[in-house]
Amino acid sequence: MRALKIFFVLLFLGCFCFVWGSEFPGWQPYDKISGKLITPHIPFANPYCKGKLKTLVIAPTWTQRETVELAQRLSIDYTPLMTESYEFFGPYPGGGERSYYLTISKEEFEKLVDTRLGDSAVYDLIVIGKIPWKVFPEKIKKQIISKVESGAGLLYINPSDLPSEIQGVLKEDVSVSSDITSVVPLKKIPLLSDISILSGELGKGRILTITYNSDKTSKTNGKVESLTPFGGDDPLYYDYYYSLVARGCLWAGKREPGVSFKNLPSDSPVFLRDKLTKTNISFTIEGKTSDINSVDIFIRDRKNSVEYEKNIPYRKSDISFSLPYLKSGEKMLDVMLKNSKGEVINWVSRNFSIASPLDIERIETEKEIYKKGEEIKGKVFLTDAIPDGAKLSISVRDGFNRKVGEYKTDGKEKEIGFSLNVKNPLTYAYTLTARIDDNSGVISEKDKKVYINITDFSRIVKDYSFIIWGDAFDNSRSIKTYLNQFYSSGIDIVYPSSTIWNKYEKTREIGLRIADANLMTAPHSVRLFFVSDQYAHLKPIEGKDGLEIQNCPLSLPSEKVKSNSIITHLRDNVAAALGPIGATYYSLGDENALSFPYYDVCFCPNCQEGFRNYVKGIYKTIDALNASWNTDYKDWSEVKGITLKDAYKQKRYPQWLDFRMFMDNAFSDFHITCAEAIKERDPDAKVGLEGPVYPARSGTGFNWYRMLPHMNFFGPYRNPIELHAALSFMPEDKLITAWFGSYQGETYEQYMRFFPWAILFEGMNAAAWWPAGVGGSSGLGGAAAYTPDLVPLEHFNWAVEEIKEIKSGIGKLLISSKRKLHPIGIYYSNACLHASTIRPEETTWESSLLDFHYILRDCRYDYKYISPDDVLGGKLSELSVLILPYAQAISPAEAEKIKNFVREGGLLMADFVPGIMDEHGKKLEKSLLSSIFGETFPSEVDVRSYGKGKAVYLGNYVKGYSEKRKRGEGKGICAGMVRFLTDLPTKKITPFADVTDSNGEIRQDVEVSLFENGQAKYLTLIRSITSGPAVKAAGAEAGGVSGAVATDATSVVNVQIPETSFVYDVRNKKFIGKTDRFTTNLLPSQANVFALLPAKLENMNLQLEQREYKKGDIVRFNVALPGEFKDAGMCIRIEVYGPDGKVIPYYTQKLMSNKGMVEGEIPLSLDETSGNYKVIATDVATSLVVSKTFNID
Question: DSSP secondary structure string, 537-562?
Fold first, then answer.
């Protein structure tokens, strides 16, 4: 299989480092630095002839990837001492639990520090990475100095505030600094050209300081380079930062090489290409040369690729070799002296350049980012006309390093135009390479990066995606490495949060950096959270009429909307930057809210004017308003909102409820306005929000049935109320996800394996992990997916394993099918939400919604929400059952629609006092539904007939069920609800399946969903998790951890389905038989999928268009299913295996059948390896496999 350029990291346990074993739990990244992740590097002194330096590296936690990078290049046994940041040694002293979520305790940190710096800890070398001396506590300072005085070396990167005992011994010793800098061509590497090196001795130890003066203009916040210069990722120079540091380590640790180089070329000479074969490079080796066995020569080009290498057996101290033909441009010469064991004795690097009269100056393209299908057009500019015998070619490689386009020309002029078309792009990033060749080889070569927007939202929402909260802020090798790690972990979409404040240029840079790793970007574009007591800038201000939002953007006059700072940021910084590369979606915020905790806002002039217009549209006349509100306003100009406190005091609840409804609308409408601003620059944009703060409570400002029809993305905290709002009110082309990850109490194995399946079965099409944990430099461990050296953490790997299986085809199968709902509607009204705030006597609106949700799901039913607009718009005709959850506030018009629904045969169910208020919260003399439920509400369950239909007043029957089920209680309530729903409706409503234990009792701990695709049905079962660690969740995510059912039930589950089918156990890959009942095993948190098919699938027919192909061809194929499956939606996974017998992952496809047929294409690259290939087609539901082979010559 072709090696992936973008996936260049190789995972194996290296022998070069000390693998540190952390005492902390598997989910805790602190102190975990294994060295398992090996990245491309030059092993300057690894292995080193004088053995390994036992090294303590003191640096911020999230910068310690550089410790491993150093260990790849220098033989060290490293021990990390991870600090909170560059500014704080120990735990962050400020407040804010969420800022340093799940970090280790102060006691744990102090215990570890005592171990690492105690008297028994002996080191050859201590390295301090850019932490000011003043940051260290006095005890730590004394311990470091004591170890140096006892003989340990100290290498201090970017020291500051040094004490007199260190400062007094440091000096600029030319002999020392020259020895250290001699290994690299200092003046040619921009970020090393002005470094400062001081050295000295303290007691028995040596001290060396290296100061990168280029760092002085950078803030340390968020920087992850503690050993190398900030922002220094350069394809050629990056390794040589470590070469310098490695030589500093050897000097400070008293392991300097015993031999040296003399007379090497200096001052970066320029050699003429046409005279290269007559050019010799000579140098002399001095010192203890008896151990030298060989001299290894490497010449690297600007991309750090080895262009020439030579091994010279050591015979004498004078070394000379001639240069071969090399292409023009900058080079780096590496010379390594090795002993007979292959250990490095010494090394040195020099810079030189090759000049040619004929050279490529640059490549220009019409633009940097192209749409799929567009031709890449541009020009190559040469220094001279192309002579006879030489040719220019332009090629393009994708992010997998596949050659996917080529342009050959016989042109000779100095400017040559070209046009390329990548017909089947698989990646976002592409490298254009212009090259001039003649019979001597490559004369000149230049690269240019371009991008193709391959985002296809229709494909994204029809398969399962994996999202991670991360960032890509800086030009850092560590950041690029962790982006590649995202890709290798199966991540599809990166959710960068810095786009909240970044300007256009930085946002675009981040988007392209993410695209380089073949990942998609979904920017956290803004945060619409307006009032809170937690932050000064969110505290409300006292206005003339009441509390106001600071700089309130709501209810602005239309002429001021476009110039509002939030709108201009979204339009001109975010959408303009990321629209061209194909942002997957734009998030309008994490944990948005109008206010939280509750504040009576907003009384600013614009909001009050908007409120007046709102109620004028409702009441028409001031008299009608006064009658509802119990006020005596004379003119509309007097009308204003009212606080909850005043509403209680003055008994003017309708005035408060109308004000809250207006503010809900205003807040929701502003989300819509923001979405429209983004679409001005990116017409194809998909916009939404995630993590809303307690939207089922007054004051937070969410009107889902007003907002969500305009949103295409939503990411709640797996709260069933918010999820069903999304499923009920959002358009078809929606991406719905939910957050999980390193939240308190969720990092145990059951939850990690449960969550990805649970959200899939609930109708979502993506899983979202919070957070990556890398990309900033603060925190003593904490919430993360990876260790500080970018190795996946244990709990993250559990989730990755499950998501990998889902993405192998089950996710595609279910998401491409229709999730079955019963004709059951739950009435969802913001007026009822606020009525519950006014009068929370029997229950709360939120609790009632949860109770009904869990009772229905435990009874194997599913439902949708019905809004007031849906009721008035005639959508009750789609239902057989309407449920009113604590629906105190209903309009007379809605009441008439509801009565007609029952009269025509519908079943109406309510828990408490439906319709005792109108839609404004005005208390009525009798319920608007009294003709159905009676003049007074009964104290017990009451069933009544009304016309052709029935009505059930439940009272306390379902109250508290969502909590009872957690204790394994309420099975009788479930049984009763099933009887209601099967016996009372005009048409019996059948559960998806009966799932019971051996005694025939309902299994509350198993949730059931059903997906349909034509004649194929897919039944999903998932058993609840057992309770995890008892913790207190810190924020709005707390709502997502509920729902666990405490149970000691057996793993054996009996399933009965409504009709006989051919049943397959999808995950266990076995045929159960033709049946309407079966038994399966489900451990806590375990999920399974059962295919209910019209026949047993015993064969498929895979056909290739031909058997012989050329490089660059399209391999067209089809898979035909038997006739019984013509109307059954099946998912076929296509995999391609190369001549080496390994799967080629970027050719894997998952395709849904259409009329019993699947068709597809495999776009071969222009440099595909010759040989025999195998195409394997696997039916996901049944695991039936067929294959065909083809050959590439």
Answer: GGS-EE-SSSEE-TT--TT--HHHHT
Cα distance between residue 656 and residue 1010, in whole Å: 43
Crossing angle (nearest 10°) for helices 605-619 and 622-629: 100
Tokens of 363: 């490549």
For β-strands 53-60 and 125-129, DSSP reports them as parallel
Put the strands of the sheet holding 1101-1104 in their side by side order.
1101-1104, 1114-1120, 1157-1163
- 1155 φψ region: left (φ > 0), alpha (ψ -120 to 50), beta (else): left
How far from 802 is each of 11, 441, 749, 1041, 1053, CA to CA, in Å?
20, 50, 11, 19, 22
Spell out the domains of the chain, with CATH numbers in brackets: 10-93+101-257 (no CATH), 258-365+373-453 (2.60.40.2550), 457-532+558-598+667-818 (3.20.20.80), 821-986 (3.40.50.880), 992-1093 (2.60.40.1180), 1101-1192 (2.60.40.1930)
Q: Residue 1105 pLDDT more than 70?
A: yes
CB 571 within 8 A of CB 625: no
The pLDDT of residue 939 is: 86
Give dist(CA 658, CA 640) in Å, integer: 10
| Mean local confidence (pLDDT), 719-741 | 96
Q: Is the pLDDT of residue 630 over 70?
A: yes
User: How much is the pLDDT for 5?
Assistant: 29
Q: Which two tokens stand for residue 344?
A: 């490095």
> Is residue 1018 within 8 Å of 757, Cβ to Cβ?
no
Query: In the sheet where 415-420 sits, what is the strand order?
Result: 360-365, 376-382, 415-420
Distance separating alpha carbons of residues 74 and 344, to the nearest angstrom: 10
Q: How many Å apart are CA 886 and CA 868, to the nearest integer?
A: 14
What's the angle, vertex CA 643, arms to CA 638 and CA 646, rounded to 5?
90
Nearest to 830, CA basis, from 844, 843, 841, 845: 845
Tokens of 228: 């190398």
Please write the tens of the pLDDT for every residue from 305-345.
999 999 999 999 999 999 999 999 999 999 999 999 999 99
Q: Which backbone phi and psi does 154 adopt, to 5 degrees? A: -130, 120
Tell me what pLDDT residue 534 has. 84
**What span, in angstroms and rounded, lies between the C-alpha atoms of 763 and 340?**
63
pLDDT of residue 266: 81
Query: Is the separation of the CB atoms in 345 and 291 below 8 Å?
Result: yes
Tens digit of each residue's pLDDT (9 = 90 or more) over 63-93: 999 999 999 999 999 999 999 999 999 998 8
Per-residue pLDDT at 13: 30
Both tokens of residue 598? 């509750």
The tokens of 183 are what? 């290994």
pLDDT, residue 265, reads: 85
Pairing of strands 1006-1013, 1016-1023: antiparallel
In contact, 882 and 908? CB cutoff 8 Å: yes
Over 261-276, what HEC string results? EECCCCCCCEEEHHHH
Per-residue pLDDT at 1048: 67
| CA dihedral sign of residues 581, 586, 590, 596 | positive
Structure tokens at 686: 């998909």
DSSP 425: -
Average pLDDT of span 817-834? 98
Type and span of the H or E element at 319: strand 318-322
Query: For residue range 192-209, what is the model confidence (pLDDT) as tens digits?
Result: 999 999 999 999 999 999
Please report, in angstroms and rounded to a whole number, the separation of the first and last CA atoms in the chain: 16
Mean pLDDT rounded to a whole number for the chain: 94
**DSSP tag of 350:** E
Give 937-950 pLDDT, tens digit per residue.
998 999 999 999 99
**CA separation for the pair 87, 1182 (Å, rounded):** 57
DSSP codes of every residue in 370-397: EETT--EEEEEEESSPPPTT-EEEEEEE
Strand order in the sheet with 318-322: 259-262, 280-287, 318-322
pTM recorded for the entire structure = 0.95
